[in-house]
Write a structure and sequence with these properties.
Layout (H helix, E strand, L loop, with lengths): L8 E4 L6 E9 L3 H9 L9 E6 L5 E10 L10 E8 L1 H13 L3 E2 L4 H8 L5 H12 L3 H11 L4 H23 L4 H7 L2 H27 L1 E7 L5 H9 L17 E7 L2 E7 L9 H15 L3 E7 L6 H9 L6 E6 L1 H4 L4 E3 L2 E3 L8 H11 L13 H22 L4 H19 L5 H8 L7
Parallel strand pairs: 1-6, 7-9, 7-10, 10-11, 11-13
Antiparallel strand pairs: 1-2, 2-5, 3-4, 4-5, 8-9, 12-13
Helix pairs in contact: 4-5, 6-7, 6-8, 6-15, 8-14, 14-15
Bound molecules: guanosine-5'-triphosphate and magnesium ion (MG).
Length: 446
C-alpha cells in the first residue's frame, strides 16, 4: 500500500549505535494514542515527563523522558511525541517496534521535515537548510546553514515575489485599458522596478553562488604547460603522492581527481595533462580531456614555471579559457627563480618542491570559497542558483519587451514566468518529483 500523508510515522531519530540517550519520534494523528499506550497517560503538552515505556503486556521496556507537542505548534505541524530512552540499539528497536505495533509506519528519510514543509512550518529552502545544517562539514558551513534556516535566502525571495506580484498587478491593469497602457506602465514605474529587481537578483545570485561553494566545495582544475609542476602541486595540496611526477614534459595524460579538505571545506582538485600542441595520440586525448575539465570548473589554477616566466604558451592558454572562469595564476618553482613566496598583485608565488608559499595558496582558496566570509553568508544549492538565473532571464525579457513596445501581454507573461521560477526556491511552486529528490537525501528521523 502506498504511504499516505495521513499515516502516523515513527523513527529512531538518533544515530544508530550506543549512546547515553536515544530518541524515538512519532508524528501524526495517532501520536496521542501511542503516548497513552506506551506511557499509560498523555503527558502535559511541552513538559518533560518521566515515565516507564511499557510493552504490549504492560511490562516496562525502558524508562525515560516523554514529550508531547500537540499540532500545529510542533516541528511537523502535527501531533508529535518524543520518547527519550537509553541509547542502545536493542532498546531503541524495541521501542520503535512498539510504536509500529500501535499503528505507526516507519518514516521515510526526511519525512518529518517534509511534513513540516507540507504543513507550512518551513519553506523548501529552509527544509534544505535543515539537512545542510546536519551535514555541515565545518563551523562556517554550519553557521551559514543556520542563517539559511533562519530565512536568509527565503525572506529575500519572498520580498522579490511580492515585488513581482505588485508589478503584475500594474501590468495586468494596463492590459484592461489598451488605450492608456503606456501611461499606466510609466506611472507605475514598471521599467525602473524591473531594473532594480534585475540588480537585486544578481546580488542574491552572487551570494547564493558563494553559499553553494561552501556546501559543495569548489571544482578547481590545475592547468598549464607541460612540466610547470601541476602534478607536484596536486600532491602538495593532497598531502600525498597522488600523481606521477617526472622531469619529462607530458608525464600526465589521464585526469586525476583528489578531494582535499581545507578546514572542513571540500576542494575538488583536478590535475590535467600539460597543454601544448602534440602529435602523440595519447597525449592529444589527454589534452582534449583537460579542456573538457576546464569547461566545467569553478576556477582554474594556471601554473606557471617562474624560472621561465609567463610567456606565449600561457597567453595562448588564457585566450582559450572561458571568459567568465576565474583564473588563479600560480608561479611555481620560486626555489629556482629566487622570488619570495606569497601573494602579490593577485598572483601566488610558491614552490611545490619546497612547500614555500603553499599555505598562502590554501588560504587564498579558502577565502575564495567564502571561508570567514562574514555575516551575510548563507548556504545554498545549485537548484537555487539555477532558479535565480532563470528568474533573471524572464525579468530581463520583460524589460526588453517593454522597451521594444512588444505589447503588454508579453510583459505580463514574462513576469508570470519569473514569479514561477522564483517560487521554486521556497516551494511556492513545486512538483512531487522535486520534493522526492530533495527529501530522499535526508537522514531517517529528521
Ligand atoms: N625546482 C623545482 N622543481 C619542480 C618544482 N615543481 C615541480 N618541479 C619539477 O618539475 C618537473 C615537472 O613536474 P610535474 O609536477 O610532473 O609537472 P607537470 O606540470 O605535472 O608536468 P606534465 O604532467 O608533464 O604536464 C619535475 O621534475 C618536478 O620535480 C618546484 O617547485 N621546484
Ligand atoms: Mg603532470
Amino acid at each position: 500500500m502506498a504511504d499516505s500523508p495521513d499515516d502516523t510515522i515513527a523513527a529512531i531519530a538518533t544515530p544508530p549505535g550506543f549512546g547515553g540517550v536515544g530518541v524515538v519520534r512519532v508524528s501524526g494523528g495517532l501520536a496521542p494514542d501511542v503516548a497513552r499506550a506506551v506511557l499509560g497517560h498523555l503527558p502535559a503538552p511541552r513538559h518533560a515527563t518521566h515515565a516507564a515505556f511499557l510493552g504490549d503486556g504492560g511490562e516496562p521496556l525502558d524508562d525515560g523522558i516523554a514529550l508531547y507537542f500537540p499540532g500545529p505548534r510542533s516541528y511537523t505541524g502535527e501531533d508529535v511525541v518524543e520518547l527519550q530512552g537509553h541509547g542502545g540499539p536493542v532498546v531503541m528497536d524495541l521501542l520503535l517496534a512498539r510504536c509500529l505495533e500501535l499503528g505507526c509506519r516507519p518514516a521515510r528519510p526526511g519525512e518529518f521535515t517534509e511534513r513540516a514543509f507540507l504543513n507550512g512550518r518551513l519553506d523548501l529552502a529552509q527544509a534544505e537548510a535543515v539537512a545542510d545544517l546536519i551535514e555541515a562539514g565545518s563551523a562556517q558551513a554550519a553557521r551559514s546553514a543556520r542563517r539559511a534556516l533562519d530565512g536568509a535566502l527565503s525572506h529575500r525571495v519572498e520580498r522579490f515575489l511580492d515585488t513581482l506580484t505588485a508589478l503584475r498587478v500594474s501590468v495586468e491593469a494596463a492590459l484592461d485599458f489598451p488605450d492608456e497602457d503606456v501611461d499606466i506602465l510609466r506611472e507605475a514605474r514598471v521599467a525602473e522596478h524591473l531594473d532594480d529587481l534585475d540588480g537585486q537578483l544578481e546580488a542574491l545570485r552572487t551570494g547564493a553562488a558563494q553559499g553553494v561553494l561552501l556546501r559543495e566545495g569548489m571544482r578547481l582544475v590545475i592547468a598549464g604547460r607541460p612540466n610547470a609542476g601541476k602534478s607536484s602541486l596536486l600532491n602538495r595540496l593532497a598531502r600525498r603522492e597522488a600523481a606521477i611526477v617526472t622531469h619529462i614534459p607530458g608525464t600526465t595524460r589521464d585526469v586525476l581527481r583528489e578531494t582535499v579538505s581545507l578546514d572542513g571545506l571540500p576542494l575538488h582538485v583536478v590535475d590535467t595533462a600539460g597543454l601544448r600542441e602534440s602529435d602523440d595520440p595519447v597525449e592529444r586525448e589527454g589534452i582534449r580531456r583537460a579542456w573538457a575539465e576546464i569547461g566545467s570548473a569553478d576556477a582554474v589554477l594556471l601554473v606557471i614555471d617562474d624560472s621561465l616566466g609567463e610567456g606565449a604558451e600561457e597567453a595562448a592558454i588564457r585566450q582559450r579559457l572561458p571568459e567568465t572562469l576565474p583564473v588563479i595564476a600560480v608561479h611555481n618553482k620560486i626555489d629556482l627563480s629566487g622570488a619570495p613566496p606569497g601573494e602579490r598583485e593577485g598572483r601566488i608565488y610558491l614552490s611545490a618542491a619546497t612547500d614555500a608559499g603553499v599555505l598562502t595558496l590554501r588560504a587564498h582558496l579558502k577565502a575564495r570559497m567564502g571561508y570567514a566570509g562574514g555575516e551575510g553568508l548563507f548556504l545554498a544549492r545549485r537548484r537555487h542558483l539555477d532558479a535565480l538565473a532563470r528568474t533573471r532571464e524572464h525579468v530581463r525579457a520583460a524589460r526588453q519587451a517593454l522597451d521594444a513596445g512588444l505589447g503588454v501581454e508579453l510583459v505580463a507573461e514574462d513576469l508570470r514566468l519569473a514569479q514561477e521560477c522564483l517560487g521554486e526556491i521556497t516551494g511556492k511552486v513545486s512538483s512531487e518529483d522535486l520534493l522526492g529528490r530533495i527529501f530522499a537525501t535526508f537522514c531517517i528521523g529528521k
